[in-house]
Structure formats: structure tokens, C-alpha cells
Amino acid sequence: MSPKRWAAVAAATVAVAVGGLLGLPPLLEEEGAAAVTVAGLAPDFDGDGRGDLVMPDQDGKVDGLNQAGYVAVAYGPGPGRTPRTRIVTQNSAGVPGRAEAHDFFGGAPAWGDLDGDGHTDLVVDATGDDRGAGRLTVLWGGPRGLSGGTVLADGTGEGSVALPVLGDFDGDGHLDVAATGLVAYGPVTRPGGPARTDRITLDTDEHAADRTEEEVWRTRDLAAGDVDGDGRTDLLAVASVDEDGEPGDALLLFLKGGAKGLEAPVSVMEGESEDRPGIGQAIEAGDLDGDGYDDIVSADWTGSGSVKVVPGGENGPEPDRIETVRQQDPVVPDPKTSVGFADSVAVGDVDGDGNLDVAVGDVYAKVGEQDRAGRVVVLWGDGSGKLTARDGQAVHHALTGVPLDGTTFNARYLALLDMDHDGRAELIVGTNPWNARPDGYCVLPGTADGITGTGAYCVPAPKP
User: Fold this and answer.
1) For 129-140, what is each residue's pLDDT tens digit?
2) Contact of 190 with 146, CB cutoff 8 Å
3) Which residues contact 106 (CB under 8 A, 6 or more apart)?
């Protein structure tokens, strides 16, 4: 799992069906509307009106079983408030299956109200589940939080299932779940699961025909958004041809949503060279230029690192209009680093001006006199999609008010999510850069002037 897929905690947008969840404005709940895209809302699994924090550890040990995996949730955290924290494993009551070594349960969490009961539900993968080539499970939200679960799909010999994202891909008003290998179409019910599942491919015939036996096709990341503005969610994928464990040419694939579901993938952007992906390794979707078409934001760590925005349009992604912000550009605050900029990316409205901003992980940046401490750079959106209207903000552990002592940010794990539903996204970032997984997460408020350490709080990652 790439660091960005730590969370739909890192998901910038989530497509939600009407009648939905999380206190949507009444305008978005009118009868007859299709699906809408809501930028940066945190999940509310227990329906108390406060955003919840998802803390997955698919490498975690459960009952002595290495890498069985689990997901923890801090319900309603906030400054000065001790959150109620719960851990869900495959040995939890009502969760299908059982914990086994190397299941990697709890990875790539994504959320939405799948059964329409007003509580957010959580979808996670288990890429090592030996009942197939991975498994997708929905954990059901309710008044007491997550409880029980239903299998959405198991992988088969035809392909694995992983990296779930949510959207209304067939435009019927019900949330669907797409992943590598398949789509589970809603409505999704607790006793019956999805209404139907369809296999999908994230490959293209032309590239499959040219591939040698030594080359492996790898899906690096998925994102969902209405890129062509037709009211149905589209699926986006970054995939590459890897050889001997090294990444090769990367492709940006576009799978258009339609009345019958997702259509076949179309390659819209090729890699820039044989060993340096041109689109990047992590993608998010959101309408940065306010034209009604979701745009694609990518993090590309190659070279000195860059953030790229591929605009959406009537026919889908428009790579000919791509905008790029490189680490060496003046808009990115000093100091510059030789490696580690754009290792991760998140999208949300930090300052509440109605324009989406972009947070970028700068994982080896120097902070003060401390080398390789890590930071997050916030690039400001002004509705143009260019992210260069004003200088970015550097956010790090030494910001006044951040309650960290003796550790720094793990900027591979970041998100922009509105935790308190005030219209501004908080920055959520992992802590302890030397751990494979963060040992906790800090939440820094968004204000009209940017991210602040005032009112920031940190939640330790629990262990089962």
C-alpha cells in the first residue's frame, strides 16, 4: 500500500448518494439529484456530529499473528477531549473471517453511507487474505460506532481486490465501491452485500500485447471523481510496468462512469521516460478550478519532486492543459531538499474560501537545525487550478502549539479533512518518521489564514 492510501483519511473527496450523511447541506439532498462530490468531510461512524479519525495498521500483530492487520478509530477527537478509541480486527464480533498471519486486514480505508441508515460505513481491504486474492469488507456504522461487517468481494485467480474507492459509478443514486479487479454496485445491504459485482481490468490491450514475461503490471493508486461532469463518478488509476522490482513507465487510466457502470479503461497520459513515471505515484480528485469538472492532482516524487494538476473536461482528463508545481518553484517555501518532496498529497479547503487547496508531503525536509524532520507544504488554490497565486505554507512539528515532544511529523501519511464540520479542512499528519507506520496522528486546525498549531491535538495509535 502506498503511504497516500493510508486513509481515505487521506481521501480528499468522496462521492456520496443523496439522502446521505455527515450533515450535507439541504440543497444536496433534494429528491431526484444524482451523486455529489463533497470535499474533505471526515467520517462520522457513530452519528454524533463530530468527525472520527481512522488509524489503520495492516501490518499490525493481532493475537500474536504477524501482519494480521487491524483498523482503529478515535471517535470524536478534539482539543482537550479524550477520544473513545476502538480497534477492529477480523476476530472482532460480527466481522467476517478470522485473523490470520499476513492477511494485512484494514488497509486503504474508504468510507460512505452504503446502506442509507445515516451512519458512515468503513470499507477496508485485506490484500493477503488466503480465501482469494484479497478481500474487501465493509464495517457498519451505527449509534455506538463500527460494529460487524459484510464481505463485499473476494479476489479470484483473475485478479486481486485492493485500494477501494467510493462513488456512484452508474448514476443510480446508490454508493458503489470500486477496487483493483472489480466494482461492487449498490445498494449494499448488511445481510446481502452489494446488488451486483462486475470484474474490471486496469490494463489496456495495447500495453498488454507489448509486455514481456519479466514485466509486471502494477496498480499504484486509485481515485474517484466526476471528471467529465456528467453526474456519474469516474474511476482514475495510476499504473506502471515494473521490472525487477523497479517502477517503469506510468500510465494515467480513465474509466468513465455510465448507466451500466464503469466502461473500459482509456490511457490518457504516458510516463515521461522508461524509469521515471510522469504522472506520479499517488492521485486525488477535486474541482480545483471551479468549472464543474473534477481535476486530478498527483504527487510525483521523482527528480526533485512535483505536484501536477490534470484538468477535467467534457471528454474526461485533459493532459494537454496540465499544470505543474515543482519543488524548486518560488511558491514552495525553503529549504529545498534533494529527495522526498511530493511523497504524498491531499486535497481540501483549508481556509474556507471555497477553493480547494493541496497539501504535499515533504518527508525529508530540514526544520530549524533538525535534519530530515519532515514537513507538509500547503499550496493555495484560488479557483484557477494553478496553485501558484501566493506562497505556500510550511507546516511542521515545531509550529507553535503543536503538542509533540521528542518526535516529528511522518509526512508520508497526511490528509485534509473537515473534522469539526466548520467548513475548513484540518491537516491530519502522522508522527514519528522512522516508523513503518506512524505511532500517532496530529490534527492541526485550518483557519482563514492557513494551518495553525493553536488548538492542535495528537492521538496515539492504539495497539490491540
Assistant:
1) 876 688 999 999
2) no
3) 56, 57, 58, 60, 69, 70, 71, 88, 89, 124, 126
